[in-house]
Amino acid sequence: MSKRKPLRVVEAPADVEREPRPPVEAIRAAAFTQFAERGYPVVTVRDIMKACGLTQGALYNHFKSKDELLHDIIASTQGELERVCQHAVAGAGDDPRAKLAAFVRIYVVRHCRLKVEAVVANREISWLGAERVADIRRSRRAIRDILVAILTEGDQRGVFDSPQIDGRRDLKAVAMALLDQCTHVSMWYGPRGQLGEEQMAKLYVEMALRAVGAKPQ
Predict the structure, then answer these.
(1) Would you call 168 helix, strand, or coil by DSSP?
(2) Structure confidence by residue, pLDDT tens digits, 72-102
(3) Whose CA is closest to 186, among 101, 140, 117, 86?
(4) 111 Cβ partners below 8 Å, 6+ apart?
(5) Can you say whether the dihedral through the CA atoms of 113, 186, 184, 130 is positive or negative?
(6) Is the dihedral of CA 192, 193, 199, 203 positive or negative?
(7) What is the DSSP string of 10-78?
């Protein structure tokens, strides 16, 4: 079995004043960081509570188990991703090109900005049981279907020319390829690179539009 490569988490400077988080938010933040750095199996409840400066018993005031905590943080970040994608597309107007650009932009910016959350949601979900995974998968299908609807509309209106294989289009496969590309920016993006979040999002928008054969506006 290959060794897990630790995720480097950049901390804010120590002299930055912060308002104290409510206990449940402190627990969630500590869990994200611990799971990202070390992986769900080896992190204990004691580790999480020590990281956020609370007693071990405080966790059980909000979560029944470490498993429930993992489900909570993944489901919450996944639900927010679905919400912001829906909102971005709804506000983009009628043109499928603008809708695709809005979708990709918000998706990539979020995955650049919330790297720790994205890594945990995509890597540690495998430790959850089938019942706990069900609503997360529903949300992921909903996000995929938003993208499929954009691609379908674009092809039907003649502004996209999505790839065909043997004369057939599989827009779900195209959507999944675009989502995989956008999701994995969280695995390598760093704020000290040549491109900032918005520039990276513009790059991914350009790649997505080219991938589906978008015609110039």
Answers:
(1) strand
(2) 999 999 999 999 999 999 999 999 999 999 9
(3) 117
(4) 118, 182, 183, 185, 186, 189
(5) negative
(6) negative
(7) PPPPTTS--PPPPHHHHHHHHHHHHHHHH-GGG--HHHHHHHHT--HHHHTTT-SSHHHHHHHHHHHHH
